[in-house]
Specification:
Largest sheet: 8 strands, mixed
Strand order of the largest sheet: 15-25-24-17-18-19-20-16
Low-confidence stretches: 908-938
Helix content: 40-55%
Number of strands: 34
Structural class: alpha/beta
Bound molecules: phosphoenolpyruvate, magnesium ion
Strand content: 15-25%
Shape: elongated
Radius of gyration: 32 Å
Mean pLDDT: 90
């Protein structure tokens, strides 16, 4: 049997269902589902995503077999609608819309009111008696078709839309400001002018034949899968090109038929806060594009009770039906045509991180979903948004009191953003590249602005509502957004904006509060989020912090399901304290070299490095010993018995020495040695490849007294802490081991020191000695190394560097083109390269366990805070991951999701990280506070 490519839906019939998203796209599958459960959906059919592929293979033409299916389904649609396309007596009009597997709002094209020509328009006027409505629909159709199908649109960022220009001219001629002032005759004249403009630029007539219009529109919607915006969006959200889009052809219903008609978009809960309230907007006597394009500012949905009580009640009923049926917060589009309600779309609603968390928790409480489903609905990186800064209240109040409050718009994307004004997307991107913080300020945004929005700190618009493009996309990106600031006059050409007589220009500072909607002139500093105020600053009572409490609940569920332990990379007591507050269960990496830069330590450290003799070195080390001991004791106390992995010195020694002549002279003077001596020692330490040179365990092998001093500091601190009645669990880790003999050499020093300290101090404590696996030979000979190691910790920063032969310090310069060319799908320093580095890790795990079945395994490279890499670590069966303190909550959730997505015994379960769409964009989503440390930390 020939493959079926077209699926019909209509009253009481639906050939598809919600499980067919891959094939029918999200919109098509859900239209079928809604029709199937008896909701009022206008009849139509969906041309499958497979046809998109066939279309491109067929030189951008619809295959004949598919055309036949479309014609057959059009006949069914005509029957269900009771009218025919092109019928000069009672014409059917249809919409042609895209619909991919994953929602790509506004990225592809749509054609509405298809089927209109002069004859059908006249017929509709006769039927409806509403000439204004008909010619308004007709001019919109010619405009959309001209743009989408025939390609008559602006080419440059400063160009004016050719149809808008004609419209403006017409309004000027008529002396009116608003489109609503145009009469039927004016609109009819606009149709003629639009058509003439098409003829003039395209060289051919506007097609009057509705079937011709249909083929053109279906082809154009398939073609829009490959437009620049769609390609950029796919890249940003990891949507594969191979998915293609479906095309939905559906009977038009009209929200612009008069005062008893309207249209709106809504969420079944508040998409910004997650509150369980109906949340949306509508406009009476309007078409859907008016609501989303932001050309008119819509009314809140609650108002509809007054405008059309029956439709409002029906919408409320549908809201509950949908939530119970889909067990999700849904985003809907509806139209009321002469008092009759139609559902045009439903899909899973996009939401802020706040809302995602609240909705997940509430739905679990409402028993709509299970705790596990609740967890699966929150992307780990979304938690970053909860850690975002808010404005410093005192500064903000002073700004407002001082008259700097410019205006108030809609609080479309919560959070605080401060930056310099730019007026277009291209500039936003360019300025952001120069590390300027920018606020993208637009009259309204459109899908073309997506890159600029992504680069900006925040988005400010003069027009549009809570569900306008700016608002939707900003929330999805986790950007701060204030939309619909009605009294903002933006002049793109002059690059200025005026608010109530106050003019600001490009480059001026502005602050926007996406939680209150306030727009404030100038810069305002920011303060930590509610979660941070409770956990870190301890300045806020959890009882007064609802966001924190919801966050804490999610964290508690995550902890119930995860099997991986979460540790942190910290080398100071305060960092350790923060990490524990975030839920860290131990320290996975204490980089001792960081401590040498602390107060009073760099001097003796330099003395040690500059020493010529063993005695001189030991004298310097003796000065360092008490300082290091103090650091370790501080950490042990804070960690209160949790395991603490301390790594012996790792970086090349020259990193500790001054390189400028004036600094070398100053050092020589303080040390009372000749400048030349310092200069010569620094240059003698120069290496061509320091990262492959005298570093890691090699330092301890050449200078065993350094290892001995560090081991003594660790164990004396441990003894001291234990004597205070605080439990300790030190784990000493030797870096950069490639040969078991290296580890044996260093482990012997560590163990001898431990025994000596315990004897001297008259106290015993448990400790472990282990190693990092961070160079390929370490992984390849992990069976041998495990004979001397009680634990392995994967140093995936160096393991990536050495496996890929890619300098971690220099790769930034050429990695971007590598990623653009898809040579590596993700930055291998951010996400574990499973095929290469991952293979070595798997080998090391297997070999290590073969020699020492109970060997403790962890990861402390930066990948330990990346959700996809955490999942890989879960799959490898590691005991823990270790990440920077601010990523600990993210790691807790990622570990739980990994455990839930890969239940024990389920072979080759689908990795969570391969989910098609990430909740946030790749870049820029991480707030400074929660951003991972750069890979190279020194
Ligand atoms: C690593 O290499 O992954 C690691 C944690 O060590 P460092 O970043 O300190 O080299
Ligand atoms: Mg390393």
């Amino acid at each position: 049997m020939a493959t079926k490519h077209v699926y019909f839906f209509g009253p009481g019939v639906a050939e598809g269902h919600k499980g067919m998203k891959n094939f029918l796209g999200g919109k098509g599958a859900n239209l079928a589902e809604m029709a199937g459960i008896g909701l009022p959906v206008p009849p139509g059919f969906t041309v499958s995503t497979e046809v998109c592929d066939l279309f491109y293979k067929n030189r951008k033409r619809i295959p004949e077999a598919v055309k036949k299916e479309i014609v057959k389904n059009l006949a069914r649609l005509e029957k269900a609608a009771g009218k025919k396309l092109g019928d000069p007596a009672d014409p059917l009009l249809v919409s042609i819309r895209s619909g991919a597997r994953a929602s790509m709002p506004g990225m592809m094209d749509t054609v509405l009111n298809l089927g209109l020509n002069d004859r059908t328009a006249a017929a509709l006027v006769a039927k409806t008696g509403n000439a204004r409505f008909v010619y308004d629909s007709y001019r919109r159709f010619v405009q959309m078709y001209g743009d989408v199908v025939l390609g008559l649109r602006p080419v440059d960022k400063d160009d004016i839309d050719p149809f808008e220009a004609i419209m403006e001219r017409k309004k000027r001629e008529r002396g009116i400001h608003d489109d609503t002032g145009l009469t039927a005759e004016d609109l009819k004249d606009l149709v003629a002018r639009y058509k003439a403009a098409i003829k003039e630029s395209m060289g051919h007539e506007f097609p009057d034949d509705p079937m011709k219009q249909l083929w053109g529109a279906v082809g154009a919607v398939f073609s829009s899968w490959m437009n620049d915006r769609a390609i950029a969006y796919r890249k940003l959200y990891d949507i594969p090109e191979s998915w293609g889009t479906a095309v939905n052809v559906q009977m038009m219903v009209f929200g612009n038929m008069g005062a008893d008609s309207g249209t709106g978009v809504a969420f079944t809960r508040d998409a910004a806060t997650g509150e369980n309230v109906f949340y949306g907007e509508y406009l009476m006597n309007a078409q859907g594009e008016d609501v989303v394009a932001g050309t008119r500012t819509p009314l809140p949905i609650a108002n509809l009770k007054k405008d059309d009580r029956r439709s409002y009640a029906e919408l409320e009923r549908i809201r509950h039906v949908l939530e119970r049926h889909f067990r999700e917060m849904m985003d809907i589009e509806f139209t009321i045509e002469r008092g009759r309600l139609y559902m045009l779309q439903c899909r899973t609603g996009k939401r802020t991180a706040f809302a995602a968390i609240k909705i997940a928790v509430d739905m679990v409480d409402e028993k709509l979903i299970s705790e596990k489903e609740g967890l699966s609905r929150i992307e780990p990186d979304q938690l970053n948004q909860l850690l975002r800064p808010v404005f410093d209240l005192t500064e903000k109040e002073a700004a407002v009191k001082g008259g700097r409050l410019l205006t108030k718009g809609l609080n479309a994307g919560p959070g605080a953003a401060t930056g310099r004004i730019v007026f277009n997307s291209v500039d936003a991107e360019a300025w952001a590249k120069r590390h300027e913080k920018v606020i993208l300020t637009r009259i309204e945004t459109s899908p073309e602005d997506i890159k600029g929005m992504s680069a900006a700190e925040g988005i400010l618009t003069a027009r549009g509502g809570m569900t306008s493009h700016a608002a939707l996309v900003a929330r999805q990106m986790g950007k701060v957004c204030v939309a619909g600031c009605g009294d903002l006059a933006v002049d793109y050409a002059r690059r200025t904006m005026t608010v109530r007589g106050k003019a600001l220009k490009e480059g001026d500072w502005i602050s926007i509060d996406g939680t209150s909607g306030q727009v404030i002139e100038g810069k305002i500093s920011t303060r930590p989020s509610e979660v941070l105020q409770v956990l870190i600053d301890r300045t806020l009572d959890p009882a007064k912090a609802p966001v924190y409490r919801t966050f804490a609940k999610i964290m508690a569920w995550a902890d119930k399901h995860r099997t991986l332990k979460i540790r942190t990379n910290a080398d100071q007591p305060d960092q350790s304290l923060n990490a524990v507050a975030f839920g860290a269960e131990g320290i996975g990496l204490c980089r001792t070299e960081h401590m040498f830069f602390g107060e009073g330590k760099i001097g003796p450290m330099r003395e040690m490095i500059l020493a010529d003799t063993l005695e001189a070195r030991e004298a310097a080390l003796a000065k360092l010993l008490p300082l290091q001991r103090l650091d370790f004791a501080g950490i042990f106390e804070v960690m209160d018995g949790r395991p603490v992995t301390i790594r012996t010195i790792d970086p090349p020694l020259h990193e500790f020495l001054p390189h400028e002549e004036k600094d070398q002279r100053a050092l020589a003077e303080t040390m009372g040695i000749p400048y030349e001596k310092v200069r010569d020692r620094v240059s003698s330490l120069h290496e061509f490849n320091p990262m492959l040179g005298l570093r890691g365990c090699r330092l301890g092998i050449i200078y065993p007294e350094i290892t001995a001093m560090q081991a003594r500091a660790i164990f004396e601190a441990a003894a001291q802490t234990k004597k205070k009645g605080i439990p300790v669990e030190p784990e000493v880790m030797i870096p950069l081991v490639g040969h078991v003999k290296e580890l044996e050499d260093q482990a012997r020093i560590v163990r001898e020191t431990a025994e000596a300290v315990m004897r001297e101090q008259g106290v015993r404590f448990k400790y472990l000695v282990g190693t990092m696996i961070e160079i390929p030979r370490g992984a390849l000979t992990a069976d041998e190394i495990a004979s001397a190691a009680e634990f392995f910790s994967f140093g995936t920063n160096d393991l990536t560097q050495t496996t890929l032969g890619l300098s971690r310090d220099d790769a930034g310069r050429f990695l971007i083109p590598y990623l653009q060319k898809d040579i590596y799908a993700k930055d291998p320093f951010e996400v574990i390269d499973r095929a290469g580095v991952g293979q070595l890790m798997r080998m090391a795990v297997d070999k290590g366990r073969r020699t020492r079945p109970g060997i403790k395994l962890g990861i402390c490279g930066e990948h330990g805070g990346d959700p996809s890499s955490i999942e890989f670590c879960h799959l490898l069966g590691l005991n823990y991951v270790s990440c920077s303190p601010f990523r600990v909550p993210i790691a807790r959730l990622a570990a739980a999701r990994a455990a839930l997505a890969n239940p024990p015994g389920a072979k080759a379960a689908k990795p969570a990280s391969r989910r098609p769409v990430k909740a946030g964009p790749k870049a820029k989503a991480k707030p400074a506070a929660a951003a991972k440390k750069p890979v190279r930390k020194r």
